[in-house]
Amino acid sequence: MVPGLLKGLITTARTALRPTHTAEYPDVAPDLPPRSRGVIALLEENCTSCMLCARECPDWCIYIDSHKETIPATTEGGRDRQRNVLDRFAIDFSLCMYCGICIEVCPFDALHWSPQFEYAEVSILDLLHEKGRLSDWMATVPPPPALDERAAEPAEVAAANKPARGTGLVGAAGGSGPRAPRTVRPRVARAAEPATEPVATGPAATGTVPPPAKEPLTGTPESVPDDMTPPAPPAHPADPDGADG
Ligand code: SF4
Ligand code: SF4
Fold first, then answer.
1. What would the pLDDT profile of 22-50 be if each residue is shown by its tens digit?
2. Most informative mutation of 43, 44, 45, 50 for ligand 2 (most atoms within 8 A of CB)
């Protein structure tokens, strides 16, 4: 019994001397990780009303209204263009389960996580945040983390830095200037030969073997006179008289 009592007292003393982990909120603000999922902020100018986030939201708690606006052509003969104008963008945080799918699927980086979480309301209806309030949350969104210095260059940057076609380095002395013109070897030896010397036309000169000379054709239809009768066909060996049957 005494050993058990002593063991309990030691445990009590050890726990009493340990530093406390009590969070004294709201007097002391909690130290949250920068990418905490507190509330969703909207960057309104990036939103094109594409409805992707509303379609992918598993809770169907994103409400978007928009209309189309015609932008007149800026050049003569050009075509008028149309663009979506955002009328309403709202998220009902009483339904949201903070899964982050809407932020992941947005192709235009219009939605961002903010670590701000102090938006409790007395009425649940007030948890429906319209686009004005969602835009105000953008001020609490932390900056994105710095890029990894050893990361590969983004494809867009690599494409922009690629030299344009036709300005390659062939012939250029280590620079990126225009391609040097091709040099043509002058035919000095041929021009210096005397005019009386025959020009070589044999296989050695051209590097190719000429085809053999053709014999003149005979017996072609053009060479046969019109009044000449064709020769009789040879008689069949079984019919010396040449009679039919
Ligand atoms: S975090 Fe999830 S549940 Fe909340 S609005 Fe976005 S997609 Fe919907
Ligand atoms: S927030 Fe993004 S995904 Fe949602 S409608 Fe706007 S552009 Fe589309």
1. 888 989 988 888 789 999 999 999 999 99
2. 50
Q: Which tokens hold the place of 185?
A: 């070897």
How many angstroms is it from 55 CA to the middle of ligand 1?
10
Q: Which tens digits make up the pLDDT trace of 159-185?
A: 888 887 765 555 444 444 555 556 666
d(CA 126, CA 19): 39
Is the CB of residue 141 less than 8 Å from the CB of residue 37?
no
3-state class (DSSP) for residue 118: coil
Quick one: pLDDT band at residue 234, thresholds 50, 70, 90? Answer: low
Q: Are strands 62-71 and 128-129 parallel, antiparallel or unpaired?
A: unpaired
The torsion region of residue 106 among left (phi > 0), alpha (psi -120 to 50) and beta comes to beta
Element (H, E) at 136: helix 131-136
The CA-atom distances, in angstroms, between 208 and each of 17, 87, 197, 203, 235 are 104, 79, 22, 5, 51
pLDDT 10s digits, 46-69: 999 999 999 999 999 999 999 999
pLDDT at 73: 92
Average pLDDT over all residues of the chain: 79
CB 50 near ligand 2, within 6 Å: yes
CA of 99 to the centre of ligand 1 (A): 5
Domains defined for the chain, CATH in brackets: 36-71+80-140 (3.30.70.3270)
Q: Please give the model's pTM, rounded to 2 decimal places.
A: 0.59
Q: What is the CA radius of gyration of the chain?
A: 46
* Residue 235, SS3 per DSSP: coil
